Amino acid sequence: MSKSMIAKPDTGTAGPSRRRRRQADRREESRERILDAAEALFAGAGFEAVSMRQIATESGVDTALIHYYFGTKAGVIDAVLERRADMVNARRTASLDAYAREQAGQMTGPGLVRAYLEPTFSFILDGTPGHRHYGAVIARLNSAPIPAEIGHDASPFDAVTQRFVELLREVRPDCALADLYWFYHMMSGAITLSLAQTGRIDHLSGGLCNSADAATILERMCEVFGQGIEALPASTDRPAP
């Protein structure tokens, strides 16, 4: 009988290995369920109005498990933000880099603004309910003072924001840097209000405008801010040549 046909003894490692994988899968499922519940609650009521007990009830777990995974409520919202931030940032960065590469030396304000905005709206407003909840969480955090528990540490979106401002400087090298940051600030406010989908413009316009119409919002913002970056005045503080 050949050696290949001789049955090898069962070392007992396969069973425990499978059990460990199942346990890891269950832990990941519990963690995702907690984050999904927290994301929806934060989107609807805001960070400060939501309790750990509410998150536990909504996700069907004990509060002790939430503390085990995330420590505090601030730890929960940090995890909520970071979970999708990588995907949003990857899309934005890829879009900006592709535009800069394809239009090297010929970038325009409207083109750059669109390259930044399109991945944001396609991900958050045209995605799953979870993506929409994520957008609402971002909108709430951006439109109110940052809660003390969260702190003022760097945002996961800072790097891609700085990349956008760098490209704005290439498009408008004659503008003061502060003006470009103010431009981003104003555009960020419009993004925040759009993500919040408050319905305010629906009421004011008598139904002419729809705050949930992502495609129209995107086109309007590209038009307004694309023209806006080109209309910024040149800096008067530049030294004479």
TrEMBL record:
Residues 51-70 bind DNA. Residues 28-88 form the HTH tetR-type domain. InterPro entries: Homeodomain-like_sf, HTH-type_TetR-like_transc_reg, HTH_TetR, PsrA_TetR_C, Tet_transcr_reg_TetR-rel_C_sf. Residues 1-30 are annotated as: Disordered. It holds the Pfam family TetR_C_30. SUPFAM superfamilies: Homeodomain-like, Tetracyclin repressor-like, C-terminal domain. It comes from the Bacteria. One of its GO terms (molecular function) is transcription cis-regulatory region binding. The keyword Cell membrane does not apply. Keywords: DNA-binding. PANTHER family: HTH-TYPE TRANSCRIPTIONAL REGULATOR RUTR, TRANSCRIPTIONAL REGULATORY PROTEIN. This is TetR family transcriptional regulator.
